[in-house]
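TL;DR need structure tokens for one chain.
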Amino acid sequence: MKKALIIIAKHMFQDKEYADVISVLGQAIVGTTTASSSAGEATGKFGGKTKIDITLDQVKVSDYDVIIFIGGPGADEYFNSPRAHSIAKETVSSGKILAAICIAPTILANAGVLKGKKATVFPTGSQDLTRGGANYTGTHVEIDGKIITADGPNSANAFGQAIVKALK
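>> reply
TL;DR here they are.
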């Protein structure tokens, strides 16, 4: 069974993105683990609650086939997080799939893993991607090698499907 790590903000993650990705991965029989900055329960922008399985400090990239960053207003807690950046860098250097949706591709850009890559993001983050060296495309879902990005909640299902396809 393939394994996915889904990283969400402790407060204000994007509920629909998380729910859609979990649903698509579950249908494809991909095991999921949810991580956040601290233990306990995370609360979404629209009030959804989910149990946090592990903290970022406990993440071992080698345990997963794909690492996914979910967006929402709270995702900014990872924009300049050394731990989030090291997870993104290790995922790329180990040849695994790295994915981010909504504003979360900003985390990847700030980590330096989007240099020269095609990527998309929620429109307000386009300059952050460009500053990080990415080629911003503005598409709903963008795939460049083993990096998958998407622009927001309306693309969450297609984003999940792209991840499943990349895992095959």
